[in-house]
Design brief:
Blueprint lengths: L4 H8 L14 E3 L2 E3 L15 H10 L7 H14 L7 E5 L5 H12 L6 E5 L24 H11 L5 E5 L16 E6 L4 H11 L3 E9 L8 H8 L7 E5 L5 E5 L2
Parallel strand pairs: 3-4, 3-6, 4-5, 6-7
Antiparallel strand pairs: 1-2, 7-9, 8-9
Helix pairs in contact: 2-4, 3-4, 6-7
This protein binds S-adenosylmethionine (SAM).
Length: about 250
C-alpha cells in the first residue's frame, strides 16, 4: 500500500492535525499491555541541536533506533561525563553501528578519554527463549564488522573504540581488562537471557551513579526485556526508570 500519510499530513499539519499509522494497536502480551504511546509534551530539543543533528544525519541509515532514543543517549553520555572518575562505556547490540556512533561522537565532542566498547555477534540475535514471544534467533544478522568499522572510524572519525566480535559476555569479555570500571552500558540485544547475562557481568563493574540503558523495554516484540526490567523494579540498589520513548534505565545506587 502506498504511503498516503505524507500527502495527507502535508494538508493536515498546518491545521494542527497529524495522522499516524498505529502498528502498535492495543494488545496484551502475557501480563503486559501495549498501545501506541503519544505523550502530549512537545519540547523537542533534538530538532535544533546542531551538533546532535550533524551526527544523527550521518548515522540514521545505520540504526533501527528513532531520534527520540538517539537524542536521549546523546544527553545521557553528557550527564555521565559529569563524573570526573574515569570509566568505560559499552554498547552490546550494535547492528550497523548507529547508536554506537551517537555514544562515541558525544564522547569525542566532550574530549573524553574514556573507551567505548562496541559488542555484537555480527550474526544476529542469540539466546532466545520462552521468555521472548517474537524473537527466535538470528534476527538482525544483516550487518558486518567492516560495515561498523567504516561508520565509526571513517565516517565519524572516532578513535577510542574497541570492537568486540562474538556473543557478549561469553566470547569476548576476556578482551576487556578485568579491573575496568564502567560509567554507562547500552543494552540493545532484544531478548531476556542476553540481558540477564550482560547485567550480571557488568553490575559489579558499574560505578555508583553509573547507568544501564535498555533500548528495547517499550516494544511489544521485546517483551523479554520488559519482563527482565520489571523483575528488578523493587530492588533497593538501583533506580528503575521508565522513559516513554521506550527506554528503561537502571541507575546504580549501591
Ligand atoms: C536491534 S539490533 C541493535 C540495533 C542497534 N543498536 C542500532 O543502532 O540500530 C540487536 C543486535 O544485538 C546483537 N546481539 C544480540 N545478543 C547479543 C549478545 N549476547 N552479544 C552480542 N551481540 C548480541 C545482534 O547481533 C543484533 O545485531
Amino acid at each position: 500500500m502506498p504511503d498516503i500519510k505524507k500527502p495527507i499530513n502535508a494538508v493536515l499539519n498546518p491545521l494542527g492535525y497529524t495522522i499516524i499509522k498505529n502498528k502498535n494497536y492495543r494488545k496484551n502480551i502475557g501480563k503486559f499491555a501495549y498501545d501506541k504511546v503519544l505523550p502530549h509534551a512537545n519540547f523537542s530539543p533534538w530538532l535544533n541541536h546542531a551538533d546532535f543533528q550533524a551526527v544523527f544525519q550521518k548515522i540514521k541509515s545505520n540504526t533501527l533506533v528513532d531520534v527520540f532514543r538517539c537524542f536521549e543517549l546523546w544527553q545521557l553520555v553528557e550527564q555521565c561525563e559529569k563524573n570526573p572518575l574515569p570509566g568505560a562505556y559499552i554498547e552490546i547490540g550494535t547492528w550497523r553501528g548507529g547508536t554506537a556512533g551517537i555514544i562515541g561522537s558525544q564522547l569525542k565532542a566532550l574530549n573524553s578519554n574514556n573507551v567505548l566498547y562496541v559488542a555484537d555477534t555480527f550474526k544476529g540475535v542469540v539466546k532466545t527463549s520462552a521468555a521472548d514471544s517474537a524473537y527466535t534467533g538470528g534476527e538482525h544478522s544483516d550487518t558486518s564488522r567492516s560495515l561498523v568499522e567504516e561508520l565509526l572510524f571513517n565516517t565519524l572519525s572516532l578513535k577510542n573504540i574497541q570492537i568486540l566480535e562474538g556473543i557478549f559476555p561469553d566470547d569476548t569479555q576476556h578482551l576487556i581488562p578485568t579491573d575496568t570500571q564502567f560509567k554507562f552500558c547500552h543494552i540493545d540485544v532484544d531478548v531476556y537471557q542476553s540481558a540477564i547475562d550482560i547485567v550480571d557481568w557488568i553490575w559489579p563493574k558499574l560505578q555508583v551513579g553509573g547507568m544501564i540503558v535498555f533500548d528495547d523495554y517499550g516494544f511489544h516484540t521485546c517483551d523479554g526485556i520488559a519482563r527482565y526490567v520489571e523483575e528488578h523494579r523493587a530492588d533497593t540498589n538501583k533506580l528503575v526508570i521508565h522513559n516513554l520513548n521506550g527506554h528503561a534505565i537502571f541507575v546504580k545506587l549501591s
